[in-house]
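Thanks for the sequence, V.! I ran ATP synthase I chain right away. Repeating your input here for the record:
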Amino acid sequence: MQNLQEIHSRQRKLTFFTIALFALGWVITGWNTVFAGLILGTLFGLYNFWILVRKSERFERAFAEGKSRISIGSALRFASGIAAAAIATAMPEQFDLISTVIGFAIPYALLVVERIIYHVRQQ
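Predicted structure:
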């Protein structure tokens, strides 16, 4: 079984590759707002994933030491989702709101696909 840092590292590489594809689509096609929204949402989604990994590691460390830990990780992730939507709403000529929301979920969708592939290869 892989540890959380290995999973996060692989996830980060996949997400940056996806962002590069979106940047290519932004340059080549005329759908600049859609691809800009996808890039914005994916970056905020990656930030959320990083917060989740960091908070999980801190929780594991505190649990191993027998301490209780209060965290605001969920509030930070919720606030970053609101921030991504607020940026897309404030600048509709640069970012499409729907594609921003879709982009926000892309790191998690990539995680699910990558984990399925990992477990299929293990069997």
